[in-house]
Amino acid sequence: MLSRKRTNKTSFYAFVTKGNAIEYISLDMAFSQLDIQLKTLPQSPGIYQYFDKEERLLYVGKAKNLKKRVLSYFNKTQDNGRIRTMVKKIYEIRHIVVNTETDALLLENNLIKKYQPRYNVLLKDDKSYPWICIKNERFPRVFHTRRLIKDGSEYFGPYTSMKTVKALLDLIKSLYKLRTCNYDLTKEKIDAGKYKVCLEYHLGNCEGGCEGKQSEEDYHTHIEHIRQIVKGDFKSSLEQFKIQMKQHAEAMEFEDAQRIKEKLDILENYQSKSTVVNPKITNVDVFSIISDEGYGYINFLQLSHGAIIRSHTLELKKRLDETDKELLELGIIEIQQRFESQSKEIYVPFEVDLGESLKITIPKLGDKKRILELSERNAKYFRMERFKQTKIVDPDRHTNRIMAQMKVDLRLNEEPRHIECFDNSNIQGTNPVAACVVFKNGKPSKKDYRKFNIKTVEGPDDFASMEEVVYRRYKRLLDEGEPLPQLVIVDGGKGQLSSGLKALEALDLRGKVAIVGIAKRLEEIYYPGDSIPLYLDKKSESLKIIQQLRNEAHRFGITFHRNKRSNAALGTELDTINGIGEKTVISLLKHYRSVSKIKVASKKSLTEVIGQAKATIIYNHYH
Question: Which pTM was predicted?
């Protein structure tokens, strides 16, 4: 239960289509917009934003687990009066999913600086996180800084820990000999002999570029290796480290070898910088799309000066089975107009036709690709949340979508509105039984569940048992004129499927009722006449419903089998006693709960339960 109190009248919402977009309308229903958002938040790292009724941003926060963190504002009484006031004003929650807590921290920092929400600590865009700078010079210096100067220099970061920056710079300096002086090392000045090598050269930390002792080409080769390190590509540097460590070890220079090994460990354990911020990507819009049978979900990330400053997902309803390309083109135009975007470059997952005014980039690797993947991830989460919200507010739409998706996934001729699943249960052939569970519109219909005692099969023969119960089930439905299912599932592989198919053939139902088998080991789905199974995505909703059917059939069959064994065991103990009937047995078991307690009960106790005459029979039988 949410403890949040509303002082005004609660507004309720449902989804409606307006043009191509989904919007809310007010309805007298059991869930408000905010309550639905709370129920469907993802349990992933990210940032959350609170807005009031006027769409003013109240607060930006980061979270390792978005759902847990946001619910904490509503599930308990806040001691802080300022927090209580803010919570009362919250009308809408938006969020952006990221990969790690570090990403969330950096993104939170950027959004607070840009929008300065009322309830956040005021952050100014000055000295905050450290960066690594490769200076725009003939012999570039490499150092850490908290100031970004637009002079053509390269900046990498930001980093959340100065310790990480120092370790990385120490690592670079141990690998490459770089200058630390601020001399203007032009070719003319070096040739004129204006500079002399300093102490750093004599200590072996610099190769003396100021006196021409190191070529510009050689120095820039080192700088290129450093760029790869700070970008997270350590392959060439790792190879150099290993070679150096081996050389020191072979020369019996074990202290030097150990020093290189420590640096190697730091390099191997170092995590590459956040994908949320990259100063080289600026004034760019990123678009991605995820779609299903009925809707397309287009995510938009806006990047300014290398930082994400906005995320939005647009939901478009398909009218004429539009392609992803058509939807994405429509969505890009709509979003850029809505947010008045001035970006001249966009990142997209595939080619789109938007005229010549925009530069279109399809990222293949590196930071650009990771930014696009982050956009796709946000689109997927939005789609999942919309499914959950729709399930609450509009269950019919949710059901229709699921059925349409199952029809496509399972290659059926019609939507499987009525599905039946069979499972056998026995222990070494004893008390063989079978179960049939029924799902209608993707949900269990327990009143239609059926249990079967195996009648014609002796011994543990799953194939013959499956053939018997499938035949009996649909022979009865045909005799009684009841509707047949659109899909039959048998628990097992090709053998059980063949048995079920024989039963349908005997009833002249082959081709009229679809039948498949599901094997438990790898969740393979087998079709009649096809030796190659179908593998559905492990996260597919179609597979989840099939697994739920299989598990429910297994549970129902095991319960029936267990009860049958128990009844059989009880019959050998009590039903064989002369003069004791079924009602007496039931009375005794209700009172004593087990046969073992009945055996040791006193005659007086038995008399109080079933009377003196029958108590005497029971007592004398066991004593």
Answer: 0.42
